[in-house]
Design brief:
The protein has 276 residues and is of the alpha/beta class. It is 42% helix and 22% strand. It has 3 domains: 37 residues; 133 residues, Periplasmic binding protein-like II (D-Maltodextrin-Binding Protein, domain 2, 3-Layer(aba) Sandwich); 97 residues, 3-Layer(aba) Sandwich (D-Maltodextrin-Binding Protein, domain 2), CATH 3.40.190.10.
Length: 276
């Protein structure tokens, strides 16, 4: 027969096991709730990494490489200044512009900071910060064709190029429906198509057209045609519902107030387009 001490030991062991099981069942939901809350807080996710992964393309004067291979540009320095205020390290990676929304949603990148135009369509797939620059879509043609392409009608049936899934592509659809629209991978490719005679015109951002064409540039033989297209604004795109949007909006206000953004705009000849 089992003695009294053994019975007591068995009863105590059973009580301890039951208590541990009950405690685990109680704390599991709390732990899961904490993890879910962290997952929902996008800024906390970014802050925990310590880096802000920024999706860009090579696009002067916003993000581009200088003669030494260093990444520079208005948006590059803007992002660096904003990240410094939030204790984050910016990490710039080049993305496929056509799949930018997927790269953002999948967390391959944390935001798009690359002369990103605010559109109603994009608002369904990302959250925008406060707009900071005005911009336009413009038509770029060869200088020798200036007398030929003077309005939208003159480009009917002509090959007109723009970057895939860009504001330029949307501007062509809205303003040049009778043109022979061809997509290219980047705005710089669009300029090359015009320069080499493969296209009559390119529709690109005014900021890039000013930086890349005209006297002293690689595209000195290209000019902006006097054809009205879309007016637009630039902002930074974060994930839908991201808590980072509000954090960066607050920093943007500081950088405007202390003159940092105005100084960058002057450096990159964008002062006339800066939203104050």
């Amino acid at each position: 027969m089992m003695n009294t001490k053994k019975w007591i030991a068995l009863i105590l062991t059973a009580l301890m096991l039951f208590g541990a099981f009950a405690c685990a069942k109680t704390t599991e939901p709390a732990a899961e709730a904490t993890e879910a809350a962290a997952a929902d807080d996008d800024f906390a996710y970014i802050q925990a990494k310590g880096t802000l992964v920024i999706g860009i393309t090579d696009y002067a004067p916003m993000n581009y490489y200088d003669e030494t291979g260093k990444l520079v540009g208005f948006d590059t320095e803007f992002a660096e200044a904003a990240c410094a205020k939030l204790g984050l390290t910016p990490e710039f990676i080049e993305i496929d512009w056509d799949s930018k929304e997927l790269e953002l949603a999948s967390k391959k990148i944390d935001c798009i900071w690359n002369g990103l135009t605010v559109t109603e369509e994009r608002k369904a797939n990302m959250d925008f910060t406060t707009s900071y620059l005005m911009n336009q879509q413009v038509v770029v043609i060869r200088a020798e064709d200036a007398a030929t392409y003077t309005d939208t009608a003159s480009l009917s049936g002509q090959v007109v190029v723009a970057e895939a899934s860009s504001a330029g592509a949307a501007a062509i659809a809205a303003n040049l429906p009778d043109a022979d629209f061809t997509e290219v991978q980047a705005q710089s490719d669009a300029l090359l198509e015009v320069k080499t005679g493969k296209a009559a015109a390119a529709v690109i951002d005014l900021t890039m057209a000013n930086a890349m064409t005209g006297e002293g540039s690689d595209y000195s033989d290209l000019v902006i045609a006097p054809i009205d297209m879309l007016d637009e604004e630039y902002a930074v795109g974060f994930r839908v519902g991201s808590t980072a949007t509000e954090k960066f909006n607050a920093v943007f206000a500081e950088l405007i107030s202390d003159g940092t953004l105005a100084a960058l705009a002057e450096k990159y000849e964008l002062s006339d387009l800066l939203i104050k």
